Amino acid sequence: MIMDIVWLVAGLVLILAGANALTDGASAIAKRMGISELVVGLTVVAFGTSTPELVISVVSAINGNSQLAIGNVVGSNIMNILVIIGVTAMVRPITVTRSVMSLEIPMVILSSAVLLVLGNSGSIDGGGVNEVSRVSGIFLLIFFLLFMRYTFASAKQPDLSPAAPAEARTESAPMPMWKSAIYVVLGLAALVWGGDRFVDGASGIAAGLGVSEAVIGLTIVAVGTSLPELATSVVAATKGRAGLAVGNVIGSNIFNVLMVLGVSATIKPLPFDSIGNFDLLTLLTASILFYLFGWLFKERTITRIEGALLTSIYIAYVAILLIRL
After folding, report:
1. Which of 22, 63, 258, 275 has the most CB atoms around it within 10 Å of its CB?
2. 239: buried, middle or exposed (CB in 10 Å: 19+, 13-18, 0-12)?
3. Is 238 inside any structural domain?
């Protein structure tokens, strides 16, 4: 138990350090290449911070632990919206561009709806097994490729994300490309290894307390694998990089459903088992709230109050999961 706590703390330190390096490196690359920070967040940063989910879900699928594989994705996506967007907005209100509201966030809602349909596929078919089949996994990967095609097609469009505050734009010039690349690589390495250490420690503690695999996937593992996104988004927000912060969450959620589950299910079909409609509907509701809060009160801005509400919903969700044990 003591070593589990040590790994937990060490993983958190690595995650925070990696997030800071990754944010600085990715922002510098965006400036050098004339690519919007939103696109960098949707691709490079999102892929990097989703690596822990990919590794854990694929390994879980190979080992036959479908609840951990699916629970990791569902739980991570719920946390990405309710906690990461919530906490980031409390740190600094998030202003979202019109294109993100009309294109990217609806993709998050669509991916959540797809998960809900897959989670009820057996009932829809008339008494079959609720699972992500190999065929469904292949289709998810095809949609992932289409999404990436769209993202890269828009990479050279002007950056319409809100300008960073004056205090966030005091740097003289972007760092050299080679240095930016090193920052990104080292940042991703720290995030992935730190996330892995955190999950090992947290899972060891949870297993020692007798918590079920499904709940571990939806909570402990999901929190651990989402820490890179949380750290990256909060750091990006404090540095006035709203596009990077929002793009990271949107990209990670889409990556998790289309790529992580797609790859995992292609390797081995994933039955949902105890991952049910309560969890899937929570994810879909969170995605819709993400969209609605962008328009309510202050247009295209997720305020501190809205961020606090999102975080409170997550706390209530976890409390219900624990009560149902």
Report:
1. 22
2. buried
3. yes
